[in-house]
Structure formats: structure tokens, C-alpha cells
Amino acid sequence: MSKRSGLAGLVDFARREPFDVLIVVLVLHVFVWTLLPAFLNANLQLDLAEDLALGKEWQLVYWKHPPLPWWIAAGLYQLTGDVRMIYLLGPLASAVAMWAVWRLGKDIVGGFPALLAVLVLEGLHFFNFSVIKFAHDQCQLPFWALTALFFHRALTRERIIDWALAGIFLALSFWSKYAAFALAATLGLFLLVDRDARKAWATPGPYVMALAFALVIAPNAWALVQSDFLPFRYVDARAKAATHWWQFAWFPVQWTLGQIGFLLPTLGLLALLWPLRRAGGAQRPLTVGNVDPNVISPGAFDRRCLAWMALGPFAVTTLVAVLLGRLPVAMWGYPLWSILPLAIVAWRGAPFEDVRLIRFALGFVAVFVIMPLVYVVVEEVEPMVRDRPKATQFPGRRLAEIVTRDFFEKTGQPLAYVTGTEFAANNVAVYGPTRPHVIVHGDPKLSPWIDMADVKKRGLLIVWEPQGEALVDEWMKTFPGATVRGRLMLPRQAHGKVAPVRLQYAIVPPEGAPLIILPPGAGRPGTVQPPGTVQPPK
After folding, report:
1. Residue 520 has what DSSP assignment?
2. Strand, helix or coil at 461?
3. Residue 274: partners with Cβ closer than 8 Å, 6 or more residues away
4. Where's the Glycosyltransferase RgtA/B/C/D-like domain (predicted)?
5. Minimal CA–CA distance to 510: which of 440, 414, 377?
6. Which of 4, 128, 228, 515 has its CA 20 to 30 A from that of 61?
7. In terms of Cα–Cα distance, which of 328, 430, 335, 426 is closest to 81?
8. Using CA atoms, how far apart are residues 455 and 473, in angstroms rounded to an integer?
9. How far apart are CA 462 and CA 460, in angstroms?
């Protein structure tokens, strides 16, 4: 048969060289989703600002999450000195996860079907729009997928090194986010329930995995105990509690529908590969053009293992939420679905007809192009038609310059500590020339890196947005002696008629510093317009 061109030729090439196509797609994926926010976003996202503001404290555990993502972000910033480099981390993490899923799929179904299972992940929201906000959800992706890869290899190849690596990557998943409990519970249950997997208990494998896990997680586990499990209180506060009987039934449905909504583009791409009903009679082999097939037929154990890893963590999360009467946060589904497309490919099986593969290629290219274009529209065009304040429009650098300069002019000391509403304080810590330490939510108990004696000695800046007004009195009690400087109105960094950002800040002068004389009428917070205040555009 003659050599084909266009999408048919591309499909033929992917059939012959699936790894080459995978590498090209992953490089483009990282390139596109790194450069888009680096060029379009004038300010860091909320999660990214938090990465850099708190990661530099190098804690074993923080008030709401384990530390690994913040360490990685802070380390990269220290190496490069450019906040925009942080945009590389999310796309890179997702690319590693996709590679790990492909390696797992190559072992089970072969290179080309595994490639198809990975390509459909480009339609999943967690691998496109939200992947740029590198934080704990994004950091889970590669370790979760690598755990699945080496757990399957450990069961099928029976090598001690695979068991050890499965334990190490599972522990790193916990270092990323404690939601990895759902994966750990799934793997443990599979080893207990599956008739073939149970045989592993007669070998050193599961015990080696448990030992490797324990050694890697030990420092964080110790810090959790020392902090009285502080991050779990944050999780408890995030998940909405049922207050009416009907919510116990509705919350699981609401959570499930939300996850299905995220999965729709991915499931739509998968649907292009097969007819709704299996055709009767003899079926065509998985061959495109004149390319020889290289498909491995998955065994029953492989299919069961994939099904457990694809659906088990979701089932565990849902069951725990039901028992506790809680509504899981939608983004907790972030790492749950990386294996699902591969499990569907393994269970649904070949063949893929020529015409369907070409339609799939067309659908994939459309998704790969449309998703970045939609991101451009949301960031650049939306502000021209409606005013929806976003973190990427926040005037973080301008705010940091004004309050840092004013603090120095009024106290003669560089700004060393900042607190207030979360996003405003984090922006001052990231963009400020002195990179001050953040006292989270104005609560020293949430910030163990803070020495209150040093805070008194060096002074403090309190900055807040309108939603923080109710907390001002409490902050003033925690940090007495505040000298209120007034209000700021800073224009957002966006095209179109968008409302300015309204902020207030107060200075707690260093202990023993000269008294700052306030103008008349400045007795209440936010009544003075300080030098450098930017008025909203007319």
C-alpha cells in the first residue's frame, strides 16, 4: 500500500513510533503551558504567590499542607531569581505523569494504545488550564503515576527494586498532599482482596515497600505529630459539612457530577475510538495502512489492577466523605483520573478502525489547539467585556513597592515581616525587595518560623483587602502599636474597564522607634491617603 499523507500519515507514524510522538507532544505541552502564563499573566496566581512566600521558610510541615511543592518552587526561584520560572513546574509535573502512564500502558497494552490513553489526558482540565498553578495538587501528579507504574511492575516482575520505588513514590505523594491516602488505601486493599495480588504477601515485596515508605515519610510524620496534626484542621475546614439529612445523599452526587464534568472532554476523545456497540463477527486487527501491529493483549490481572488504580482512589475519597458527612472539594479529584483512560483502553480493547483513528487524531489536534486559545481569551479578552477580578490582574509588584518604601521611610528599617489577608501579604513577600517573612493570617501559631520577639524588634506591616476588614481589630490586638497609614487604590493589570484594587495597610513600628505623628482624623484604620497612593483611572 502506498504511503499516506496528512492525518492518516501521522497516525501511521504514531503507530510505528509511539514514543517519538509522545516526546513531541510532551515537549509541546510543557512549552505551550509554560509560555502562555509567563507572557500573559502580569501577576502570579494565588497558589504560586503562596509557593514563593512560604516555601522559603523550609518547614517540614505547614499549616495547611505538606511542604514539597513549596520547597520545589522556592528552590527554583533561588536558583534562577525569576518568579516566572515557577510556571515551568506545573506543566513539567504533568508531563512526567503522562510519561509514567505511557510506560505503565506500554507494559500492559503496548506502545500505541498507551499513547492514545495518554493523549486524551490533554482534554482533562487538570492537565491544561489548572496545570499552570503549581501547588500540592499538581505536585501529586507525577508521584501518583510513578507509584502506579512501579506497583504494577512489582506485582508482575517481582523485583525488590520495584517494590522499593513504589514505596518511595507513594511517600513523595504524601509529601505533596495528604490526599495520597486514597491511593495508599486502594493499593493496600488490592493486595488484600485480589486473589493473585495476595500471593505477594508471601514475598519480601510488600514489606520492602512499607519500609521504603516509612523511611521517606518519617520526617514529615514526626513534624505532623509535633504540630498536633495542624494541616488536618485545614482540610476539615475546607470540606463543607452536612447540616441537613438530605445533604448526606446529595453531597456524593454533587461531588461525582463535578468530576464527570471535568472528565467530559477526555471521555469525548475516547469515544471517538470505538463504536457505541461492538460489531459482530470477525474484527479487523489494530493496523493502520501498511503498519504491523505491536499490541499486547492485557491479561485479566492487568485489567483488574488498572481498574483498581483508576477507580479505587475516587471510591475511597467518596466513601470517607460519605461517612464523615462532608462535601469533597472539587479540586481534590486532581490526581484521581490519570489512569482512567488507560484502564478503559485495556478493558475496551482493540480494534481501532482507520477512520476512527483519523477522527481521534483530528479531535486531539483540536483540543490541543483550542484549550490554549481559550486560555488566551480568558486572560486577554474577557476583561474587555466583563469585570471579573483575577489574581493574575492583581498589582502585586506596585503594592509591594509602595508599602515597602513607606515602611522604610517611616521607620528607618527594612521591611522584615508582613501579615494581613492572605493574597495581599503573599504578594508583598514575593515582589517586595526585602522579601519579608509572612505571618499567616496574622496568627503566629500558624507561622512557627516567626519569633515574636524579633517581630517587636524589627516591626511589621499589616495589609488587607476589603474582605479582611472584620479581622483588623484582632490583628491590632495581636500586634499592638500599629500606626495606620491609610488606603490604596491601585489599577488592575488588565485591558478594559476593570475596577481598581482597594487595600489598606498599617505599620507596626519597631520597638523603641521614634513616634510617628499621624495627621488629624487618622485615629481609625484606613482614613489617610499616604504619599504614593494611586487613584483609580477616570
Report:
1. T
2. strand
3. 348, 352, 356
4. 64-221
5. 414
6. 128
7. 430
8. 19
9. 7
Q: Name the CA dihedral angle for 169, 171, 173, 177, rounded to a multiple of 10 degrees.
A: -170
HSE-up of residue 243 (Cα within 13 Å, Cβ side): 2
CA–CA gap between residue 404 and residue 58 (Å, rounded): 24
Residue in 435, 425, 451 with CA at minimum distance from that of residue 503 = 425
The type of residue at 501 is V
- CA-to-CA dists, residue 168 to 146, 149, 492, angstroms: 10, 12, 44
pLDDT tens string 348-398: 876 678 888 999 999 999 999 999 999 999 999 888 888 888 999 999 999
C-alpha cell at 464: 488587607
- What residues contact 117, with CB distance under 8 A and at least 6 apart? 101, 102, 105, 109, 341, 342, 344, 345
Residue with cell 515597602: 404
Give CA separation, 301 vs 57, 112, 486, in Å: 46, 21, 67
Residues comprising the chain, all counted: 538
pLDDT (tens digit, 9 = 90+) per residue, 54-70? 999 999 999 889 999 99
Torsion of CA 241, 247, 249, 252, to 10 degrees: -50
* Beta bridge pairs of residue 241: 326
69/50 Cα distance (integer angstroms) = 10
